């Protein structure tokens, strides 16, 4: 019987190893291509608000694969969440929350009697970009669609910082989020089954639950710093010029193309001599080319008055009411307290025990920083929270009469302005 050449067996073994390596690489590549990340890898834009697909600057396909797999599956495995409830000093008494925190009760009122069931969330997921589930102090995220710019990553970072600020105190909770401004859960259309969907804005005609804006932790695409830093810059900008030397007119700069009747009408008042106002349209395309240098909030303090004009919906009711006093007191401490109470009150309405979704991935600070680009990472690191030395403020009970009075006062103010006989600014001065 003829013998096989001596080199045949090693060749077959080598070919088998090569085939196995190719197959393994293919499987790894395929696995990475199916892994969705909080910064937008392998995610399509939300169908209700289309935008160009995200691009990433990794040097090569292999570096991209390594980054996705390492950050998504290996980073949090060695991470130990601080779930031990913090013990506060005996003299650390909780002060009362600001009055506007009472809106939390109003925003959650649609579910006060029925509670929030698994059926509510299943239906709400059809309108969501991602789902965030907190279990035992750990955060698990199920991604459905990409969010425009870095909104999803910075919103999720905010949740991680809340867990860090109040370790062991944030309850188990199951929430779904959309990351666009325009509310979608209309009260007329969804009246029989109100859907609990979190987003940054809402109106009185919608069930959408307002949640603190992602930009409190920074907005890298527009060079906006974390809020505490940004407000210090705004304050310094305001103090550069004394009141008597500021322009004696009202100033507004923003985007009027957001289905906002108020902003559309405001454009008609752009006449400094006739109406005493300067109205500027924000051109996002041009601003992006110039690095948003002309959009710095700290450079918009040269006029005596600043006009507040709501967009399609409101995201902070009290800004127009409290003015400077509200701005002075709006610290990140207050933002975290608001988040804590909103999530805490929401969790009380859940009629089921939150569990980690099988399709979700754990997200920790390390994994998010691992996925972020250098510019995003700098802002995220600068907005890192620390355990609070005092407990959250004490949330006051619901007061429907107080809220009703606020709404009526707001409506009356608007009506009074609409009913005013418009007197040109030049006549007022004379």
UniProtKB/TrEMBL annotation:
Residues 169-353 form the Glycosyl transferase CAP10 domain. Coiled coil: none annotated. The chain crosses the membrane at residues 7-26. The keyword Transcription regulation does not apply. Pfam families: Glyco_transf_90. Keywords: Membrane, Transferase, Transmembrane, Transmembrane helix. One of its GO terms (molecular function) is transferase activity. It comes from the Eukaryota. Belongs to the glycosyltransferase 90 family. PANTHER family: KDEL LYS-ASP-GLU-LEU CONTAINING - RELATED, PROTEIN O-GLUCOSYLTRANSFERASE 1. This is Glycosyl transferase CAP10 domain-containing protein. It comes from Ficus carica.
């Amino acid at each position: 019987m003829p013998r096989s050449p001596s080199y045949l067996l090693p060749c077959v073994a080598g070919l088998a190893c090569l085939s196995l390596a190719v197959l393994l690489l293919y499987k790894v590549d395929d696995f990475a291509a199916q892994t969705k990340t909080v910064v937008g890898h392998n995610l399509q834009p939300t169908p209700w608000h289309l935008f160009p697909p995200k691009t990433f600057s990794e040097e090569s396909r292999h570096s991209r694969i390594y980054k996705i797999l390492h950050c998504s599956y290996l980073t949090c495995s060695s991470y130990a969440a601080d779930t031990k409830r913090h013990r506060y000093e005996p003299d650390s008494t909780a002060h009362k929350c600001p009055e506007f925190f009472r809106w939390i009760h109003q925003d959650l009122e649609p579910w006060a009697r029925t509670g929030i069931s698994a059926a509510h969330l299943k239906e709400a997921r059809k309108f969501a970009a991602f789902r965030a589930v907190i279990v035992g102090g750990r955060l698990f995220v199920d991604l459905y669609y990409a969010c425009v710019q870095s909104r999803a990553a910075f919103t999720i970072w905010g949740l991680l910082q809340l867990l860090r600020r109040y370790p062991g105190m944030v309850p188990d909770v199951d929430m779904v989020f959309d990351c666009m401004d325009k509310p979608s859960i209309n009260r007329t259309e969804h009246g029989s089954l109100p859907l609990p969907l979190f987003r940054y804005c809402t109106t009185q005609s919608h069930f959408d639950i307002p949640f603190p804006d992602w930009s409190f932790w920074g907005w890298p695409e527009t060079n906006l710093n974390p809020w505490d830093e940004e407000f210090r810059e705004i304050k310094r900008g305001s103090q550069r010029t004394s009141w008597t030397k500021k322009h004696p007119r009202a100033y507004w700069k923003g985007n009027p193309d957001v289905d906002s009747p108020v902003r559309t009408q405001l454009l008609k008042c752009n006449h400094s001599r006739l109406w005493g106002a300067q109205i500027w349209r924000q051109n996002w395309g041009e601003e992006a080319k110039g690095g948003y240098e002309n959009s710095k909030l700290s450079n918009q303090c040269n006029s005596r008055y600043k006009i507040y004009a709501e967009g399609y919906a409101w995201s902070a009711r009290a800004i127009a009411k409290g003015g400077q006093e509200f701005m002075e007191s709006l610290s990140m401490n207050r933002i975290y307290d608001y988040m804590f109470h909103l999530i805490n009150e929401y969790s009380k309405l859940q009629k089921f025990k939150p569990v980690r979704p099988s399709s979700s991935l754990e997200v920790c600070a390390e994994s998010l920083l691992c996925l972020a680009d250098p510019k995003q990472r700098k802002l995220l690191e600068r907005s890192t929270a620390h355990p609070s030395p005092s407990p959250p403020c004490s949330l006051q009970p619901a007061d429907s009469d107080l809220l009703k009075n606020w709404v009526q006062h707001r409506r009356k103010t608007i009506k009074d302005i609409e009913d005013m006989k418009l007197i040109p600014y030049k006549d007022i001065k004379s």
